Automatic annotation (TrEMBL):
It comes from Penicillium solitum. It comes from the Eukaryota. InterPro entries: DUF3425. Residues 1-55 are annotated as: Disordered. This is BZIP domain-containing protein. Pfam families: DUF3425. Residues 36-55 have a biased composition (Basic and acidic residues).
Length: 314
């Protein structure tokens, strides 16, 4: 009995062995617990990132499927082949692709221009303290708004006044445009809006998107300032905005094509730590290159006088 008691006492100070048979001291055991906890946390973050990425890819695919159904429904009503752009290139051997086939209107009224002028004018009454200037948060709102729907962003709590502007432009002007068209156009419009809020600081936008001297000297409609191509902006500033009819905006929204040879899911990245979606560096680099901003030939068939305005890069 005494020997058993002595053995029990002596074994109390001996560290317990792991299942592998290895015996660790208490500090070593604590270090291992910390490492295990860090590893598990990293795995959880990776799983969360994969789920979020899958959700985003699924949403983008659903958007394309939805548009394709519209394409098929519309093409069944047409007498001739569709002239859409597929992934930035003209379709060959097929009637249509993932671009939305919508017949541009020939409406010569100025409803969209007047709407845009009134909306964009609001930015000049805002101060930096009233808007979101956090770049990752802004990009996340843009991407999620386009992929998931703006109501999802609105229900998130904070709603920036600049987001309201691009949301309304999206739903009125680009309502039937391709995903890439919406991302490109709204991204650049949003950046320019931020420039005007920050006392006309244009360092954070491409040189070709900065105001031309003619835009500063001559009075013109505000909508002209947000058109990407500098040559066209200069024409509108010098000659007036009679061209900016509803027909023009309709052809602009349907005929624009951004040269991007990758998948839509390559446009954005998901930050596993913050959970925010941001535009990929590759897409941003392509977005900054005016040579990737192109129009379908149907646009120039309707507006041949502006053809060379689109070749002036700076």
């Amino acid at each position: 009995m005494s020997r058993f008691h002595d053995h029990a006492k002596s074994s109390r100070g001996v560290p317990k062995s792991w299942s592998s048979g290895r015996i660790l001291t208490e500090p070593q055991r604590q270090q291992k617990r910390n490492r295990d906890r860090i590893t598990k946390e990293r795995h959880r973050n990776e799983e969360r990132k994969e789920k979020e990425d899958l959700k985003l890819r699924s949403s983008a695919l659903e958007q394309d499927v939805h548009y394709l159904r519209e394409v098929l429904a519309f093409s069944s009503l047409q007498s001739g082949p569709c002239k859409c752009i597929v992934s930035g290139q003209r379709a060959q051997g097929i009637e249509c692709g993932l671009a939305v086939c919508c017949t541009p209107t020939n409406d010569q009224s100025y409803t969209l221009k007047n709407f845009s002028d009134q909306l964009l004018r609001q930015v000049h009454h805002l101060t930096p303290s009233q808007v979101c200037l956090n770049e990752p948060v802004n990009q996340d709102a843009l991407i999620r708004g386009i992929l998931f729907g703006w109501d999802k962003v609105q229900n998130g709590g904070f709603w920036c006044p600049l987001w309201e502007i691009i949301y309304q432009i999206d739903t009125v002007v680009f309502v039937r445009s391709r995903l890439l068209t919406r991302i490109c156009m709204l991204r650049m419009i949003h950046l320019l809006l931020q420039c005007f809020v920050q006392t006309h600081d244009f360092r954070n936008i491409p040189a070709w998107y900065r105001p031309r001297p003619s835009q500063i000297i001559f009075h013109h409609d505000i909508s002209a300032d947000y058109i990407a191509w500098p040559g066209l902006r200069e024409r509108l500033a010098l000659t007036g905005s009679r061209m900016l009819t509803d027909e023009f905006f309709s052809y602009l929204a349907s005929g624009f094509r951004f040269i991007w040879k990758r998948q839509i899911s390559d446009v954005y990245e998901l930050d596993a730590i913050t959970g925010l979606c941001t535009l990929s560096s590759l897409f941003n680099e392509s977005l900054w290159d005016i040579r990737n901003w192109a129009m379908d030939k149907e646009f120039f068939e309707v507006f041949p006088q502006v053809y060379y305005d689109f070749t002036l890069s700076i």
